[in-house]
Amino acid sequence: MKIDAIRRNYTRDKLDMDKLTADPLVQFEHWLQDAVDAELPDPTAMCVASVDASGQPSQRLVLLKDLNPNGFVFYTNLGSKKATELAANPKVCLHFPWHPLERQVIVYGTAERVPSSQVMKYFLSRPKESQLAAWASEQSRPISTRQALLQKFAEIKHKFEHGDVTLPSFWGGFLVRPHQIEFWQGGEHRLHDRFMYSQQDDGSWSIDRLCP
């Protein structure tokens, strides 16, 4: 297999300055709606990049669960690798890869814990099996076998068999407040359209076209 010969041209769309909204979160919402309308698999999937104490970056895919004027929200086990890294270094990068639309969005920002009331509201909206899984999984920790995980899940399921699943103390969420957001639209002959929004001191956003 010659992977260096795998390529395709990007001709689906173009992105011009006059097509952009002044607020990147509004622009993102438009593009997210396009991804939903196109029935892309997991349109809210995003790569979250964090950095550990040694400077080693790590990435993982999670689902965006809220978009509001302050930024992007996701939920996780607070003992997980990403949560512990973000607690020590809140600088974070998000990446949305909408390949079928020849689009991607990169978000640069800082992460902060969301209020417990917001965490509770979202946790109670999850399917019961997902609530149980949150209790059963010590996310990012070694486990001997899958059977051991299933056994833990069965024990938790039995524990909450006759009542509501309570919110684990070790489960929470993060809000990523962006200070830069890049919108990328694939272009013919690798002449892609890239625009970077950068937040100014007064809260407004400047927009620069970047070379591809």
From TrEMBL:
<comment type="pathway">
    <text>Cofactor metabolism; pyridoxal 5'-phosphate salvage; pyridoxal 5'-phosphate from pyridoxine 5'-phosphate: step 1/1.</text>
</comment>
<feature type="binding site">
    <location>
        <position position="65"/>
    </location>
    <ligand>
        <name>substrate</name>
    </ligand>
</feature>
<feature type="binding site">
    <location>
        <position position="126"/>
    </location>
    <ligand>
        <name>substrate</name>
    </ligand>
</feature>
<comment type="function">
    <text>Catalyzes the oxidation of either pyridoxine 5'-phosphate (PNP) or pyridoxamine 5'-phosphate (PMP) into pyridoxal 5'-phosphate (PLP).</text>
</comment>
<feature type="binding site">
    <location>
        <position position="130"/>
    </location>
    <ligand>
        <name>substrate</name>
    </ligand>
</feature>
<feature type="binding site">
    <location>
        <begin position="139"/>
        <end position="140"/>
    </location>
    <ligand>
        <name>FMN</name>
    </ligand>
</feature>
<keyword id="KW-0560">Oxidoreductase</keyword>
<dbReference type="InterPro" id="IPR000659">
    <property type="entry name" value="Pyridox_Oxase"/>
</dbReference>
<dbReference type="GO" id="GO:0004733">
    <property type="term" value="F:pyridoxamine phosphate oxidase activity"/>
</dbReference>
<feature type="binding site">
    <location>
        <position position="184"/>
    </location>
    <ligand>
        <name>FMN</name>
    </ligand>
</feature>
<dbReference type="Pfam" id="PF10590">
    <property type="entry name" value="PNP_phzG_C"/>
</dbReference>
<feature type="binding site">
    <location>
        <begin position="75"/>
        <end position="76"/>
    </location>
    <ligand>
        <name>FMN</name>
    </ligand>
</feature>
<dbReference type="InterPro" id="IPR019576">
    <property type="entry name" value="Pyridoxamine_oxidase_dimer_C"/>
</dbReference>
<feature type="domain" description="Pyridoxine 5'-phosphate oxidase dimerisation C-terminal">
    <location>
        <begin position="171"/>
        <end position="212"/>
    </location>
</feature>
<comment type="pathway">
    <text>Cofactor metabolism; pyridoxal 5'-phosphate salvage; pyridoxal 5'-phosphate from pyridoxamine 5'-phosphate: step 1/1.</text>
</comment>
<keyword id="KW-0288">FMN</keyword>
<feature type="binding site">
    <location>
        <position position="122"/>
    </location>
    <ligand>
        <name>substrate</name>
    </ligand>
</feature>
<feature type="binding site">
    <location>
        <begin position="60"/>
        <end position="65"/>
    </location>
    <ligand>
        <name>FMN</name>
    </ligand>
</feature>
<feature type="domain" description="Pyridoxamine 5'-phosphate oxidase N-terminal">
    <location>
        <begin position="32"/>
        <end position="158"/>
    </location>
</feature>
<feature type="binding site">
    <location>
        <begin position="190"/>
        <end position="192"/>
    </location>
    <ligand>
        <name>substrate</name>
    </ligand>
</feature>
<dbReference type="InterPro" id="IPR011576">
    <property type="entry name" value="Pyridox_Oxase_N"/>
</dbReference>
<keyword id="KW-0285">Flavoprotein</keyword>
<dbReference type="InterPro" id="IPR012349">
    <property type="entry name" value="Split_barrel_FMN-bd"/>
</dbReference>
<feature type="binding site">
    <location>
        <position position="81"/>
    </location>
    <ligand>
        <name>FMN</name>
    </ligand>
</feature>
<feature type="binding site">
    <location>
        <position position="104"/>
    </location>
    <ligand>
        <name>FMN</name>
    </ligand>
</feature>
<feature type="binding site">
    <location>
        <position position="82"/>
    </location>
    <ligand>
        <name>FMN</name>
    </ligand>
</feature>
<keyword id="KW-0664">Pyridoxine biosynthesis</keyword>
<comment type="similarity">
    <text>Belongs to the pyridoxamine 5'-phosphate oxidase family.</text>
</comment>
<protein>
    <recommendedName>
        <fullName>Pyridoxine/pyridoxamine 5'-phosphate oxidase</fullName>
        <ecNumber>1.4.3.5</ecNumber>
    </recommendedName>
</protein>
<feature type="binding site">
    <location>
        <position position="194"/>
    </location>
    <ligand>
        <name>FMN</name>
    </ligand>
</feature>
<comment type="subunit">
    <text>Homodimer.</text>
</comment>
<dbReference type="InterPro" id="IPR019740">
    <property type="entry name" value="Pyridox_Oxase_CS"/>
</dbReference>
<dbReference type="Pfam" id="PF01243">
    <property type="entry name" value="PNPOx_N"/>
</dbReference>
